[in-house]
Amino acid sequence: MIATEASVNLGLAGKLRAVFELTKFRLSMTVVFSACFGYLLAIEKPVNWLNLALLAVAGFLTTAAANIVNQIKEKDLDKLMRRTAKRPLPTGRISDAEAWWCTGISLTVAMAIFLLFFNQKTAAIAFLSFVLYGFVYTPLKRVGPVAVFVGAFPGAFPPMIGWLAATNQFGWEPGILFAIQFFWQFPHFWAIAWVADADYRKAGFKLLPAQGEKGFETAVRIMIYTLFLLPLSWVPLELGMTGVQSAVVAMVCGVLFLAQTFHLMSKQTDKAALQMMFGSFLYLPVVQIAFLL
């Protein structure tokens, strides 16, 4: 009897670990951070910490639902790549049906929170983000670099979602938060695609620009999109959202980020792309924290 109970507990623990892995916790938390940033930047009164916590939960669950759909649809492709072969679905630790249940529950709870505690605009953009990522971006990854353009939309929605949750108003302010994160997506994701190119090719993913090849032309495309971040650094200041110090910090970060693209253009190596990938992970939170402070 004791042995049976232990095995059941072990099975349950294994399922819970598999569900946790499906959520892509670290990736989902970066989305939560961006959404909370947008909320805190928009709020003009003492912070309602309960609402902030609810926004974080709803943002996490929406992102988790999108990530799970992505993994369900790419289960057979994930088996082909070293970096994804040990995920819960390819290894059979969780079934497709169980994963769909997790998706449905996560999305339902998230939408309920958005509608009950925030507003319809926030719920609509969050739901659009889920659909674009799970059902449009995911299949386009085997079509071509257009997938990166489509994926940049759900990737850039989080700060807008946070702003809408606080104000229930569209406008230039959430638009510029969206724009900064939108253009950041291209150098960020293409650096990842450069580093993971060998694995991506096994699954038929065609994500790099310039005929899908690693080289000078792709590095130039990355540099061009990074250039947009420099003028965008000053727009929040012009809109009265932030102070001059944060604009200077954003500009300096943009220049350093741009310098990494020139390094990639010069070296055209996986190491240079990896350095740029880590640089992209630093750029966004540093700039967002500067805007808040």
Describe the structure.
By secondary structure, this protein is mainly alpha-helical. Helix content is 78%, strand content 0%. The chain is built from 14 helices and no strands.
Question: Helical region count?
Answer: 14
Helix share bin: over 70%
How would you sum up the global shape?
Answer: flat
What is the averaged pLDDT score?
93
Series of secondary-structure elements, N-terminal to C-terminal:
HHHHHHHHHHHHHH
In what range is the share of β-strand residues? under 5%
Gap from first CA to last CA: 58 Å
Low-pLDDT residue intervals, each spanning 5 or more residues: 1-10
Question: Can you summarize this structure?
Answer:
With 293 residues, this protein is an all-alpha fold. The protein contains 14 helices and no strands.
